[in-house]
Amino acid sequence: MRTTRILLTGLATAALALSACGGDDGGDTDSTDEAQAAAGDDTSGDDGEDAQAPEPAEIRLWLNGGDTPDTMRDWLIEAFEEQNPGSTLVIEEQQWEGLVDRLTTSLGSASETPDVVEIGNTQAPTFTTVGAFSDLTDMLGDLGGDDLLQGFVDAGSVDGQTYAVPLYAGSKYVFYRKDLFAESGLEVPATMEEFVDAAVTLKQDNDDMQNFSGFWFPGQDWRNGVTFLWDSGGELAVQEGDEWHGALSTPESIEGLERAQQLFTEASGAPKDGNEADPQVPFCAGEVGMLSAPGWVRWSIDNEEIGCPEMMENVGVFAMPGSDGEPAPVLLGGSNIAISANSQNQELARSLVELILSDDFQAQYAENGLTPAKMSLADGLGDDEFATASIEAVTNAKLTPAAANWAVVEGSRVLEDLFVAIANGGDVEQLAADADASITEQLD
Amino acid sequence: MTTRHPDSSVLDTGGTRPAAATRHTDDATWTTQRPALRARKTAAGRRRRMWNALAVVLALIWAFPVYWMVNSSFLPFNRIRNPDPTFIPLGGTLSAYERVFDSDFLASLRTSLMVTLITVAAALLFAFLAALALSRFRFRGRRTFVLAVLVIQMIPAEGLFISQFKLLEGWQLLNSVVGLSLLYIAAVVPFTIWMLRGFVAGVPRDLEEAALVDGCSRAQAFFRITFPLLAPGLVASGVYAFLQAWNEFTLALVIMTRPENMTLPLWLRTFTDANRASDWAGIMAGSALIAIPVIVFFLFVQNRMTSGLVSGAVKG
Amino acid sequence: MTPPVTVHGGRREDPGPSTAARRRTASRRKGRRSGRRTMPYVLLVPALAVLLAALGYPLFRQAVMSFQEYGLAQQFGQPPEWVGVDNYTRLLSDSYLWTVIARSIAFCLLVAATTMVIGTALAVLMTVVSRGVRLALQISLLLAWAMPHLASLTVWQWLFDAQYGIVNWLLTSIGLDGFAGHSWLIEPLSFFIVAGVVVVWMSVPFVAFAVYAGLMQVPVELEEAAAIDGASARARFRLITVPLVKPVLLIVGLLQIIWDLKVFTQIFVLQDAGGVTRETNLIGTYIYRLGLGEGQFGLAAAASWFVLLITVGLSLYYVRVLIRDDEELTR
């Protein structure tokens, strides 16, 4: 029911936002002048007198999807309005789909820009490199400094300046069927090798089921596939001097890709060209021994309308193990938060970002199963099996290459194509070399 | 009737709308009523049944995905995507509809209705006037205009939203029904002009002239003679304009950024979540509700579509 | 509104002596004449104004941007740099582009033709079935047309899903076991057949409605007279119906070509569901994946003009016929 609940609360918040911004037109017109000054209208020779307390205003915060639950939003609004008397905070829920288009237009408009926005960590470089966000470098220490998830700070930084700071993270871990493990006499794997063996064994032991997967691995799922590449020491792309090159055809990468191919052909019954959406569907159909997915899949399985709550007692989780016995490097997902450079209320926006990165607020992300932006708060995730797997997975998680054009590589779906071809039993070395050529060209 | 003077059939009706029996589609009874063709009655009847059966089959094929949407809206997701599909939502649930009505559906419906009705009304009016100019007058620049309208439709509009946003920003029409409608009208007006132009040209001038001679005022001549003849074209272009505005997503996405200004397609997206499981039953329920006003609109206007040209009023 | 009655003599091209004479003598008539001369422009004003307002500036900017390095940075205030025809050469220098164009044209023509044939056939069918059946068919088509794309594309994906799809389920249950887990999207040909089915399904209602409206203007008397004269149904259709609905057929056919050439959403969504992106890109998705999704607007603008060029090339015949047809209509 969680998805439903989140959905409903999200919509309730939207309604709340609606009533909040109804009667605040005066504030808007007031701040237009400031906006013109901020937009660099030097000719007007503005006096810089508003150095004291910022003028009260309506602050618009864009949060995406349902990751930040209703209670957290309420808390944030209350805390912000208490700290900044006279100002109001309006949270407008955005959808991930179409977000880039909306940000592209709205952030460029002095009158319509939201003040603070959440943005996916892989989308962050697209906007930080073009001057869409305000420089937050001077606040970094106050916001948490070294305690902040460094990969996300990197994703939000250009040339040593930081424009977007971490909001929360989440990473994938392995869901497995305890009953099937017991039937096949398997233990939770401690190394990558054991993991692959377990996946193959499960597939063999349950081969009477048509689409059974020892490890559910649809062909397009490069976001899981990259784990095997990283585990064997490979990279997606590397930087030499100023230039980025695809690195899929290095010997280390090839080793990882071949391991992925073994899993595709010997352990997975998922469609060879499928994507990783709705993993609970094959899981609930009993066709999956193990799958690697973000933590929220737990709630999909435990949902009466979406999943199969009766199966929960057989669900176990662990962080995917690496070849060295440590957690394997998995792809880190999550969000950054930034202030629109066009915002007319920079001061208020900064105080909002401080509040969002405060321990009080971030701890609530941990309570809701997401990894908070500060390492020191990860304990808040709890100590059950899920929390342990989640924390372990994050410790060794990695991000996609920090190249400015990386989004183009993802957009062109080179990686999806590569893994589909690998899943179909193609020649790994040849495929990797071709993909490298495309990636190098796109990162250029 | 074929021997009558072209104008008389109209004047005979005394200015009321043309008699239904002479129209093409009203049960197409003309083949069976005429003595010369009566012999074919049974053969025609058999053929008719065959066509009816074919039409029903095709209707079912086209409606199947729609049925599947409605089916899915009543089922929990784990029964939609399941190795054993559920074809009839027995033991289904209305919970998706509850979620839909608990959300901003009605507010979005209002915004969408306003945008769409403005678009349809303005597009039809503007296009009708332009069609009148194009089919009843020869003037300098006419050909340029015709070509321009044609080419405008060919320009890929996908990248235009950036500049259109700037445009509306300058006019302070962001987040406004008027601003969005303006863009929609411009998007549908070229096709509407072309569509109506053919219909206006198809209305015999003699007919209106005759009506004028007969003492009708110009307005009367227009509403009694011209308008009914244009109706099929107006309905077809109206439905087109309606659906374009009703289902448009990208422009609405960038123009209507405030939650209180959501149109229905934007509202529908609130049920998706890339980071979590999307509420597919809710999306299907919402989609089913979004389709209803379209059908209502059509049922209101569909009679107009079948009132074709008056029998006997043949131009050439 | 000027009554059409007065139009006949008013051709600007041949002001015969008698016209000139009338103009000199009858001042009241002269007033009407000049009114008639400005009337068409007055009638065009609203449409023209709305087109200029909503599209004029954006199209102008699009033209300018195609010669600029214009990306997100420029969107956020950096001055754009003039790059001449760089965007165009960058676009055209990619050999893969030509594969995609050939693929797109083939897909476009096949799908547009199929849509036109089925749509027109359905429109004709509407004229020969009984009233209730016609309404049922119309509503069913309208439902398909009105279904939000988010829902319709999702449903089509579900139908053709390899493991949980109805299509495979039905095929397997009638004994074709080879279709268990069959992926419809992994082979490019099969991918485009599925994409074609979806696109045709979505576009046929529009064609059917427009053509049906056109058919409603065909005078019954004419067909009837021809029937009595012994013309076969086919001959009647070819000789009477087709010429009279030709304007509608032409413009609707042109639109199909335009839309199917730049088809985007259906391909984009299906690529996400399965298949190999590089083997299934059409112009729309290819250009998007070049980086337009990430805001390379200069390149996007160049691509737009380029696609326009292809469209004009593809539809040149259509446009010629349309224009000639248009001249005839008003003669």
From TrEMBL, chain A:
<feature type="compositionally biased region" description="Acidic residues">
    <location>
        <begin position="43"/>
        <end position="52"/>
    </location>
</feature>
<feature type="signal peptide">
    <location>
        <begin position="1"/>
        <end position="22"/>
    </location>
</feature>
<protein>
    <submittedName>
        <fullName>Extracellular solute-binding protein</fullName>
    </submittedName>
</protein>
<feature type="region of interest" description="Disordered">
    <location>
        <begin position="20"/>
        <end position="54"/>
    </location>
</feature>
<dbReference type="InterPro" id="IPR050490">
    <property type="entry name" value="Bact_solute-bd_prot1"/>
</dbReference>
<dbReference type="Pfam" id="PF01547">
    <property type="entry name" value="SBP_bac_1"/>
</dbReference>
<keyword id="KW-0732">Signal</keyword>
<dbReference type="InterPro" id="IPR006059">
    <property type="entry name" value="SBP"/>
</dbReference>
